[in-house]
Amino acid sequence: MGEIILKINGLGFSYDGNRVLNGLDLEIEKGSFVSVLGPNGSGKSTLINLLSKVLKGHEGSIKLFGRDIKKLSSRDTAGFVAVVPQYSNPGFDFTVREMVLMGRYAHILRFGSEKKPDIAAAENAMDKTKVLEFANKKFHELSGGEKQRVVIAQALAQDAPLILLDEPTSHLDINFQIEIMDLFFRLNRDEKKTVIGVFHDINLAANYSKSAVFLKQGRVFAQGDIKSVITRENIKSVFKSEVFVSKNPFTGKTYISPMFLNEAAAARDILGSVKTPGTFTSQVKRVHVIGGGGEASPVLTMLYNLGFFVSCGVVNNFDTDLDTAEVLQIPYVSEAPFSPISLHSQNSNLDFIRGSDVVVLPEVAFGHGNFSNLVSVKEALEMGKKVILLNSKNFKTRDYTGGKAARVYEKLLEKGAIVADNISEIPHLL
Amino acid sequence: MNKEVFKSRHISKYIIPLVVILVIFIIIAASVGSAKVTIKETGLIIASFIPGINYLIDEASLNQQNVKIISQIRLPRILISVFVGIALACAGVIFQGIFRNPMADPYIIGVSAGASLGATVGLIIVSGVKLLSISSASIFAFAGAIGVTFLVYNISRIRAKISVVTLLLAGVALSSLISAINSFILIFRSQDMAKVIFWLMGGLTSASWQQFYIIAPVITVLLVFAGFFLKDLNLISLGDERASQLGVETEKVKKILLVLASLIAAAAVSVSGIIGFVGLITPHIMRLIVGPDHKALYPASAIAGAIVLLFSDTLARTVLQPREIPVGIITSIIGVPFFIYLLLRSKKEVF
Known about the structure:
The complex is a heterodimer.
Chain A: E1 4-15, E2 18-29, E3 33-37, H1 44-51, E4 59-64, E5 67-68, H2 74-80, E6 81-84, H3 96-102, H4 116-128, H5 144-157, E7 162-166, H6 174-190, E8 194-198, H7 202-208, E9 211-216, E10 219-225, H8 226-229, H9 232-239, E11 243-247, E12 254-258, H10 262-271, E13 286-290, H11 297-305, E14 309-316, H12 320-328, E15 332-335, H13 343-354, E16 358-361, H14 371-382, E17 386-390, H15 404-414, E18 418-420, H16 426-429
Parallel strand pairs in A: 3-8, 3-9, 6-7, 7-8, 13-14, 13-16, 14-15, 16-17, 17-18
Antiparallel strand pairs in A: 1-2, 1-4, 4-5, 9-10, 11-12
Chain B: H1 10-31, H2 39-47, H3 64-99, H4 111-125, E1 130-131, E2 134-135, H5 136-156, H6 164-188, H7 193-200, H8 209-227, H9 230-236, H10 240-245, H11 250-272, H12 278-290, H13 294-318, H14 327-345
Antiparallel strand pairs in B: 1-2
Helix pairs in contact in B: 1-2, 1-3, 1-13, 3-8, 3-11, 3-12, 3-13, 4-5, 4-6, 4-7, 4-11, 5-6, 5-11, 8-11, 12-13, 13-14
């Protein structure tokens, strides 16, 4: 355990009678890099403003380096805590150098002026943020990314051990976002600065910080290392949003993807189906989706969220469709990786088909290994099930069996399979 | 890396030239008027009053009548216009800084309306009363200016924090109300209207050494005190929130500066009436020249304000000799076209 530099107990705060923070407890260790995440109105910005004494009049206690923040002057607080906000244009046209030197305010006496250490600190900060080269330029003339770097330099010139980030990158292009987050990463690693950041972008937070705090309705909902906090369940209960939590293939770090359920929502509006996703009732149709190559995933996600009882098969292990089925906790039939579909699996698949009302075939490519899936679809038609084929026009490009699959596919069309031109038509054809 | 750029070069680059210009203007201003005194003689007469160099001047060689004209009539008026100019420009700098808006002027939160009402009361209702040889109009103008500012300030303070918008709106609203009261008084005393209007148009005709001895120390003390908050003004222009994050006790500093700037403006108005545009335009011009750093802007604007008002007042008393034009008319006639020129010339939005 490192030294606790920030200890918050029972923190409460209201704006005009509107309760924003409600009994928040938090301890931050020296040298940590913590992301504070939560939806709008969860109290993130209020927390930052209380920690920097922009807001006063809280309940409970905030102890900065063991000292009660209520007893610290603004100047003392600024010596402990530097805030990096989103840049905003000052009322007058200062130069970059003047802006950065303003960061030294807390270190300069009321009747004094900037001394050598102040100038050195400002230069050092400008060097780190690579703004020295335009030190004499007017702030107004800079680009957004450059302005943000100047604001960071201003905060670094403050020379405070704790840095609070108040969404300093959310208005910047991706290259600047990364550049700026890299800078804080290095400050944390090399200079042992403690960083607490409020972010909207969960992936950015997950990639750069060591731990995360989820705020919900003015309290800490979850806290801990990234893997234990950034989970599908936590995000669902904090943000009320369906996401897919995976690993970034390049970094191995936690990575979330929103499910983007707009198509499902649009279809639900038309169908009038208001069933809770995944709940099965006798009126709800059972739909079996043929998987492979990740093609089934969007169909599964949409139908699942429309409240249909969905199953999937046959998919090889490590196929994205299988991940999706696991995340959605829907039944599936799987096969060993890179292996042809066994008779056993094919029979299980047919069992699912037998139990379903509709079978959907997405834009799966067929080779000899998964050819039996196509045969199962044909059998579904023969059983009298409704079969929906997604985009029949490009089947030739998906046929790796030398025409064998195409012939079966032709038969499906002859025998009355329905064709959906795009995924959003599927719910209407069910 | 060149460390020089960090150092304050403002003094040698801007302040000294401005002071030289001011001194030249003072000598010229002292030499012009209905009695002709040469520039050289004027310089000698002024020098003879300055301890340390006066022993160099043979006082017997000076025309005693000219000495009297300059020392008793022109110099007090010149020095008062210098101080009023300094006060207006500095109050302008402070108000523009607090409001983060280059359109703010020293009268923005009710100083002028309060001073007008006070002057009306002083000129009409309790005229003739004098305190320390200051006219009742001045005393009541000062009291009125302070009173209205105080009222505006308290209205805008109701919701814990002082809001700039509330401050401005309360100032505008209260100013209208007070102007209405002022006009109401004047309809019953139409015989005094000319007197009041002439006072309101601004002028330094009543300047005297007594007035100077009171106004100069008051303005000096207030200006020096406000001068301790110039760093804070720089930070406040980044926004109240950012200033607090960087360590400024924003609310406290804003209150102190509002009070100081209002007192400075009220002190100026009480001796000179309402002189427009000096407090608005001088900081504006100086910002273009020295930049927005208040540590440079404040002293530079002070001296520039003195120059502008001295120049205007000299024109006011000489162009239509022996008739005087209220100096407020001159400052507006010169100031407005210049201001519009600046507006059109600047490529950027002013705000």
